[in-house]
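Q: My labmate handed me this sequence with no annotations at all. I'd like to see what the chain might look like in three dimensions before we decide whether it's worth expressing. Could you predict it?
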Amino acid sequence: MLDHPKPPYPNQKQPMPGTTAKMDPRPDHGESSYRGSGKLAGKKAVITGADSGIGRAVALAFAREGADILISYLSEHDDAQEVKGLIEAEGRKAVLIAGDLRSPDHCRSVVARAVDDFGRIDILVNNAAHQATFKDIGDITDEEWQQTFEVNIHAMFYLAKAAVPLMPPGSAIINTASINSDMPNPILLAYATTKGAIHNFSGGLAQMLAAKGIRVNAVAPGPIWTPLIPSTMPEDAVTNFGKQVPLKRAGQPAELATAYVMLADPLSSFTSGATVPVTGGKPFL
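A: Here is what I predict for the chain of 285 residues:
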């Protein structure tokens, strides 16, 4: 078994949305471990939230499998440039586009940019997310509730709606759900609620797009060590992050990449409407 970091993790706090460089331990995105085998050779992928965390690991894995990547991110320019360098080091094309996915127009511009640069979209990974913790419903402002839905679920609709007419048969959409869609954490009320919506959105869209030959699936991560954690969670939760699952630790972003590769792989042509849990041993119903 690989020697992954286990809690307690050092005390650390970052402003939202957080950055990879300030994390201790630094997340593993598969930089030295992921080996590609051409599963996605020649594919063109759009990945939101690809500057860090799960999105970064997926972008690196896709590039090592032969795909060109559009990296959509909010404003974490240094992190995004690092990912661009990793992709280009694999001989693949990397395109950066910054902006707020709460805007339907920006979502459409992400898709348009991908088509301008790549000619088509074969894979859309809806991964970007916003979360914040609150102990009482009265502490959640209207603006916070709206922002969480706009980033986490509304953007998926806008991106998918824009991308589907430009995706050839055999394409794949992969949405990042969460273990919270089945077992909601009360201090993540807004976030967990959107993740439940993503689970249903993915299942419904899979049925809607089956006739077009486009597969739709979701990945449901458990506790994963990303910049979202020290920038949004209470200090004690960060220190003990992941301790509650059977493996007694947080997962590393690299440990999710194979699930996304499997769902994007054309050989997974009968897999649609599925949710793949990557939870460190915690059952997902």
